[in-house]
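Reading a protein record of the kind used here takes only a little practice. Each token is a code from a learned vocabulary of local backbone shapes. With that in mind, consider the following protein and its fold in token form:
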Amino acid sequence: MGADLILSVVDQSPVRAGGTAGDALRETIQLAVAVEKLGYYRYWLAEHHNLPNFAGTSPEVLVGQVAAHTNSIRVGSGGVMLSHYSALKVAENFRMLESLYPGRIDLGVGRAPGSDHLTAAALSYPGSPKDVQHYPRQVVDLVGYLNGGLESEHPFAQVQAGPDSPRSAPEVWLLGSRYESAYMAARLGMPFAYAHFFGLGVDEGPSIVEGYRKQFEPSKFLDEPKVNIGVQVLCAETEEEALRIAASRNLGRLYSVTNRAKGIPTVEEALDYPYQMNELAFIRQYSQVCADGNPQQVKEKLEKIAEIYGTGDLSVVTICHDFADRVRSYELVAEVCGLGEMDGSE
């Protein structure tokens, strides 16, 4: 199935311990330029708030920057946490991007807060956080605004999202790691991106995706189910080197889930860390859902994930301390999976 793999990138703009958010954001742009030349199909930017490990608080800003520095790769959000925002404003942001970069913009949206509950409250202050029960309505409104208007009985039917008359509309994806988002995408006839890379509840992942396919209802936007799977990957010339580099990602993940996040640690810190038994068990379990190893091992793992989920449309998430190691991982994956290189010209 290797020849059928369509590989994209999800970038969370990881901040290195000892580095700055500015470094991370500039590296996001550098990485986008590099992976476009390697033949990756999409480049999606994540949204996180009040998390020291990640600098990407405003995917709509980064989407514009990445699109401006690249030529042909699709660029989008992975995703905008819609529950924090007005559907109209998000639609206007992405109609603006689509007007500037027609035919290249994706809009992935999610229902998770992308933060802790206190930060979610701060994002809504002095109002109250939106009840998640309103999320389906927000998605329907968002799609309406993006495509020229809401249903006639809607209270804001006379409101049009600007800029006026872009040549095309962004492709909207629903993102998630639970049945609710998958079934909602199915009911609305929208593409669904499953976050296997979260490492939480992935045993249910194949059944979540299969449920999406079974319940899918064709829409004017999509005739049949369309699935993307996000996968955590670390590739190096040898398995030993890949696992050594991945240690920084693993410790960063441990710090994050135990509220000790302070940037992605160095490999040396990760190797010297005095792990408790429960911490080692957590890292072993987390590592099992990652596709780490030498190029051939990573290819086989990606092909296995593609087989399990029934799609070759995969998004690669690569996190480690050293930026050069991240770039090299994407290079090796592109080479072993046969992605076509582009010259980066118009």
